[in-house]
Amino acid sequence: MSAEKTPCISAIDTTNFARQIVLDFEFAPVPKQRQRRGLRNEIIEVGAVKLDYHGNAMGEFSQFVQTEFTEGVAYPVRELTGISAVDTAMADPLYVVIKRLSDWIGRYSAQVVCWSGADHRQLLTECQAKHIDLSAFPTDWADLQAF
What we know:
Elements: E1 19-29, E2 41-52, E3 57-66, H1 75-81, H2 85-89, E4 92-93, H3 94-105, E5 110-114, H4 118-129, E6 140-143
């Protein structure tokens, strides 16, 4: 699914959604010789906070992600995030983490809130490259950086 075909909202909308999911991915670069299907980065951690329509925190989600094309975690990423190669090696692959995240979000109408469009693009690109089904994942995203 391309970003052009995916609905995207540029402002937080608390009237039409039961939940807001504040989402942040950490990702690491894929070495050029290992890049496949346009995948230049891989998600190594998923962090999220679920808010009700009043903005009250309802829960947190945090999981490391096992990489498929990136070996280890490059020094600059490790220094910035504190995520090690052991963290990603012991983690579940992205398709498992996305399924858990979707289940955690639940079947409520939800809008994903993130900082910039990078997380949204990364999720779409990586899931397409790895043939991961996003049909149960919210499609409405708000970009905090846009305003």
